[in-house]
Amino acid sequence: MSVPIPEIAFETTQVNGLNLHVLPAKKFKTTTIVVCIEQALSEENVTKTALLAHVLKRATARFPDSKQLREHLDFLYGAVFDVDVAKKGERQILQVYLELPQEQYLSAETALLEQAIQFVGDVLLRPYLENGVFAEKYILSEKEALRKRIESVVDDKIKYANQRITEEMCKGEPFALLVYGRVEDLPAISGENLYRYWKELIARNPIDIFVVGDVEQKQIEEYIGRHLAIERGLAKQLPPLAVQKQVSEIREVIDQLDVTQGKLNIGCRTHVTYRDDDYPALVMANGVLGGFPHSKLFINVREKASLAYYAVSRLESHKGVLMMMAGIDAANYEKAVSIMKEQLQLVRDGNISEMELAQTKATIVNQYRELMDSARMMIEFTYNGRLSGRRRTLSELLRQIQDIGIEEIRRVADKVQIDTIYLLRDRKGGA
Question: Region 394-418: what's the mean pLDDT?
Fold first, then answer.
């Protein structure tokens, strides 16, 4: 007998012009609150949005320094709090995250949930100001923190290689931008112009609030209405989520740094995104190619040829980019590229065994089922649907994955075009 397919059923309403999504779930001993503010990824705003996340996290009008803010989180029974930015296609998402214990598990009588939502309102709508703008002391220190964060990307060579191939492959497209922004933009940002940007973002951009836990919809609506009171007009229309380009020729880029292990990335355009009918088949194609330890890249590049320390592929579903990645000795560059290309061609040709098909389906289905054990992952799944304009249910997606055959995988893989081959290697000699 098959295990019943789970469902993620948020109830969506609008409160104060904000999209509120509530999922009552008794199985969690914590309540998770996530606020997502959607912004177009752009040179004009990328650094301001990233810096704003740092500044909002630092202090509020009620808690004007980091010490008082941390003490209040302790008062909220050690609530976990963060403000950060994420990149999804041509979007930069400013996210506020708060996770706290369920009230009924505490010995003391406390209105913990309302206090938590009040705190989220403080962070978003009632920041710490001096002379009516963001405090210059916090602007200066958070600029420095953000500068270090941007510059430290090079310290993680896998992340650095991924960013470099993205820059090269997507030149002229917003997706090329690092989500944390650009160091050269920082000097021009002041407490005053960042404050104006914050006011505009809060008033006009799409904002989604997710709450998961043993909660009641009406109660959450009441708390949001009280503590996130804000005047908002119609949310502005943002440009397309994904800029698509055809590949005219495969580009090769080689960078040299002091590295002990080469990083080989092969960037592909799939011409399929989360909202497309072919998306489930693309998920399967990626799984067969390099998503898992049983996949072709791992078995043939790492295990059989012993060419790589790791060999995987990853999808960026909102942009429609598939990235093949391997850690190699630079001397093996051409051989590794050749074998990785061969694996993609095998998938394009439908050269997939029934074992590979079955293992990939089982692994993907298990991954999706595991969403149900994480409030944050359920929020992420639901937000991906809202962002893309294709609100898939989990049961629908699982059924589609289970129904996909080799021919559907072959057909979607045939659309995949290699765009850029990138190698980060040591400084000795040529590749």
Answer: 96
What are the DSSP calls for 56-94, one per residue? HHH-BSSS-SHHHHHHHHHHTTS-EEEEEEEEETTEEEE
Q: For residues 29 and 175, is the Cβ–Cβ distance under 8 A?
A: no
Grouping H, G, I as helix, E, B as strand and the rest as coil, residue 268 is strand
313 touches 325 (CB < 8 A): yes
pLDDT at residue 431 greater than cutoff 70: no
Radius of gyration of the chain, Cα coordinates, nearest whole angstrom = 23
3-state secondary structure of 275: coil
In angstroms, the first-to-last Cα distance of the chain is: 55
**Residue 23 — φ and ψ, nearest 5°?**
-125, 100
Strands 207-213 and 30-40: antiparallel
Mean pLDDT of the region 125-152: 97
Q: What percent of the chain has pLDDT over 70?
A: 97
**pLDDT tens column, 208-250:** 999 999 999 999 999 999 999 998 877 888 887 778 888 889 9
Euclidean distance between CA atoms 280 and 396, whole angstroms: 10
| DSSP conformation class of 5 | P
Name the segment(s) of the chain with CATH classification 3.30.830.10: 11-227, 251-425
95 three-class SS: strand
Which amino acid does the sequence have at 319? K
Is the pLDDT confidence value at 3 over 60? no
Q: Which two tokens stand for residue 213?
A: 């836990």
Among 415, 424, 408, 409, which Cα is nearest to 247's? 415
Average pLDDT of the residues of the chain? 94
Query: Pairing relation of β-strands 30-40 and 80-88?
Result: unpaired
* CA-closest candidate to residue 341, choices 407, 270, 416, 411: 416
Q: Is CATH 3.30.830.10 correct for 11-227?
A: yes
**How far is Cα 124 from Cα 127, in angstroms, rounded to an integer?**
7
Of residues 230, 235, 346, 359, the one with CA closest to residue 294: 359
251-425 classified as CATH 3.30.830.10: yes
